Automatic annotation (TrEMBL), chain B:
InterPro entries: MetI-like, MetI-like_sf. The chain crosses the membrane at residues 21-44, 95-114, 126-147, 177-199, 220-245, 276-297. It comes from Thalassospira mesophila. GO terms for cellular component: plasma membrane. This is Spermidine/putrescine ABC transporter permease. It is a multi-pass membrane protein. One of its GO terms (biological process) is transmembrane transport. The lineage of its organism: Bacteria, Pseudomonadati, Pseudomonadota, Alphaproteobacteria, Rhodospirillales.
Length: 387, 309
């Protein structure tokens, strides 16, 4: 999980401009109070969202959260029941898909089965009446970009899943759309290929500078690829932010839970002085010390989000401040190679998840079942949630 | 070590597992052999015989003469088919009428199949039901009903004359027009059903992809839907064309004396002329005519199935 955060930090150096933080920046795509109803069901409920030029923006959420509907409204396959959508300043109301400056890469790829790879890619250009030689050149360039030149004469059914994905990408990029829409672009690929393709897609996006809007249910995919992510649930956007912001500063239990692993501890704010905010929790059986300001007054119910990799296990009670230190027993161990996860049953009865990187080749695991351990974390590691 | 003896049921089950396939495939093949291939061979045999005033009314092909077999094959019937323009005209006429009917059926059936495939769940089932519904009454009765509609004193003429749109009844029955109506009406479901099944299977995202790439809806239909529904078009067309070529009842009841089709010629040879060998050779020649498109169809279907994988 830290991979996403690291990448973000690395990107922060290169990508100096963050238009979403610039109040003068003009959004490239704008959803203005967009609602989409299917019968009595609100697929998208009063969503406002700005996406900027050259972004790789991800709509992230579980099935039925409205992310695909949002994308289809951008493509023109659905019209909003209320609200407006602007692309590059132009109101898209009533503009049919074939006149929009968008192209879509479909989840099923939707390659035309009766046409060769070449003809599939050339299809969009033919519609716009380019000359034969220009079509030929642009198709060849695009196939070279996705490394499919060798397969130009093949039919889709003669290709593997990964190859089809590349053809679909080439077909949707060849018209140089202002916005490329990707519906679960890597959903049909196996894990290894998916990871490899993620970076290829990002490279292509950086090379072409096209604005990408991607729909995915895979949080890892969103975090690896996107400049910003909108986390959606039940037709509304729960939070928008960079992968780093979402992971480190979730604004709700939903986001905290959706991105990565988290232990959520319910408690009451009992003291908020200059040094620490103290949250008393029956769940964890003690007080939690937080070294940053917390929203709310004394007596407010809050949730403390503890990421498993920010927690530490020790066999002896650490003798520093004594803050945030709870005793328990190892109940379950999951060995994942690079890291191990431990489920620790605290004395309060709460089960807490801790993960530790396996940085050395130990002969034996550090802890085993029924070991008595202390779970501890630094006062700055936890984030506090109001909802 | 003593072996456990399988019970009778176990033995039966094992036998079924080993030989069940042969049994399942074998029965229909036996059926086809007895009721299709054997009669066909008999007809083939008769087509090489000579007509005689006897019982049966044709000469024997094989004769036992002095401990040897005397084979008398008569190609004359086939040569006769070629020499008499009646037969060639009848064949060509049948093919022409069947082809035109097929095209009309396709033009009417395609939009219907498309509409049904695009309809929502319950409406779709209702529409399919309506297409199949006419099969629940006898074919003959439905053709007779058309006599009642197209006749000189039929429904259409009565209505038009009642409304004073025409003063003289239109001659519709006993024309080629009536034959077209009959064939198109009768065979329309055979066109709609295969077309529906290919159109219904079509991935809707393909059309969306075409629109997305800048294709207008009517062009997307021509470039995507139509080519992808070709197996259905072909299947439907053959299902209409092949039986229409040999159609007897419709031209007999709705067509005029001038509507010359091969089915009627065949009937006349058998029942009016009692020339079984000629009738048989007419039948065999028609079969050969029709086997070619069937084989072509099978070939194409095999190819598309392979491509669909």
């Amino acid at each position: 999980m830290s991979q996403g955060a690291n990448q973000q930090e690395a990107q922060a150096g290169v990508q100096s401009s963050q238009p979403w933080n610039d109040p003068d920046a003009v959004p490239f795509i704008r959803f203005e109070k967009v609602t989409k109803k299917f019968g009595e069901f609100y697929a998208v409920d009063d969503v406002s969202l700005d996406i900027y030029r050259h972004e790789l923006f991800a709509l992230l959420g579980g099935s039925g959260c409205g992310k695909t509907t949002l994308l289809r409204m951008l493509a023109g396959f659905e019209e909003p029941s209320a609200g407006k959508i602007f692309i590059d300043g132009v109101d898209m109301a009533g503009v049919p898909p074939y006149e929009r400056p968008t192209n879509m890469m479909f989840q099923s790829y939707a390659l035309f089965p009766h046409m060769s790879v070449e003809t599939n890619v050339a299809f969009g250009l033919h519609q716009d009446g380019y000359s034969k030689s220009e079509i030929k050149d642009r198709v060849a360039d695009m196939l070279a970009l996705v490394q499919m030149s060798k397969f130009a004469k093949r039919k889709p059914h003669q290709l593997s899943g990964g190859q089809r994905q590349r053809v679909a990408l080439a077909r949707s990029l060849v018209k140089q759309p202002k916005v490329l829409l990707l519906d679960e672009p890597l959903g049909a690929l196996d894990k290894k290929l998916r990871e490899q393709t993620q970076f290829e897609l990002v490279n292509i996006q950086e090379k072409l500078g096209t604005t990408f809007v991607m729909v995915t249910h895979d949080q890892e995919e969103a975090m690896t690829m996107a400049s910003r992510i909108a986390v959606m649930n039940d037709g509304v956007i729960k939070q928008i932010g960079t992968p780093f912001e979402l992971y480190e500063y979730p604004n709700s239990r939903f986001t905290a839970n959706f991105l990565g692993q988290v232990n959520l501890v319910e408690g009451t704010l009992i003291d908020d002085d200059e040094k620490y905010a103290i949250i008393r929790s029956d769940d964890i059986g003690g007080d939690i010390y937080i070294d940053h300001a917390v929203q709310g007054h004394e007596g407010t119910t809050l949730w403390v989000a503890l990421r498993p990799e920010r927690l530490r296990l020790c066999t002896e009670k650490p003798d520093d401040s004594g803050h945030n230190c709870f005793a328990g027993k190892v109940e379950e161990i999951g060995y994942l190679g690079g890291l191990s996860t431990y489920h620790v049953r605290l004395e309060s009865g709460m089960r807490i998840k801790v993960s530790e990187p396996n940085t050395h080749r130990h002969n034996e695991p550090r802890y085993t079942w029924e070991d008595k351990v202390w779970v501890t974390w630094e006062t700055g590691s936890a984030s506090v949630l109001n909802q | 070590m003593s072996e456990i003896k399988p019970t009778l049921k176990q033995r039966f089950d094992r036998w079924m597992i080993r030989h069940g396939r042969v049994l399942v495939i074998g029965l229909p093949y036996l059926w086809l052999f007895l009721f299709f291939l054997v009669p066909f061979l008999i007809v083939l045999k008769i087509s090489f015989a000579t007509a005689e005033y006897a019982q049966p009314p044709y000469s024997a092909l094989f004769q036992w003469v002095d401990e040897g077999v005397n084979v008398a094959i008569n190609f004359g019937n086939y040569l006769f088919l070629l020499s008499d323009s009646l037969y060639i005209t009848a064949y060509l006429n049948s093919i022409r009428i069947a082809a035109i009917s097929t095209v009309i059926t396709l033009l009417i059936g395609y939009p219907m199949a498309y509409g049904i495939a695009r309809a929502k769940g319950s409406t779709r089932n209702l529409l399919l039901m309506l297409v199949i519904l006419p099969f629940w009454t006898s074919f003959l009765i439905r053709v007779y009903a058309w006599i009642g509609i197209l006749d000189r004193e039929g429904l259409i003429n009565a209505a038009l004359m009642g409304m004073h749109i025409i003063s003289e009844p239109l001659i519709m029955r006993q024309t080629e027009f009536a034959v077209y109506i009959g064939i198109v009406y009768t065979y329309l479901p055979f066109m709609i059903l295969p077309l529906y099944s290919t159109l219904e299977k079509m991935d809707g995202s393909l059309l969306e992809a075409a629109l997305d790439l800048g294709c207008k809806p009517w062009k997307a239909f021509l470039k995507i839907t139509l080519p992808l529904s070709m197996p259905g078009v072909l299947a439907g067309s053959l299902l209409v064309f092949i039986p229409a070529v040999g159609e007897f009842v419709i031209p007999e009841l709705l067509g005029g004396p001038n509507t010359l089709m091969i089915g009627r010629t065949l009937w006349n040879e058998f029942f009016s002329n009692r020339d079984w060998p000629i009738a048989s050779s007419v039948a065999i020649a028609m079969l050969i005519f029709l086997v070619v498109p069937i084989m072509y169809f099978q070939h194409i279907q095999g190819k598309t199935e392979e491509a669909g994988k």
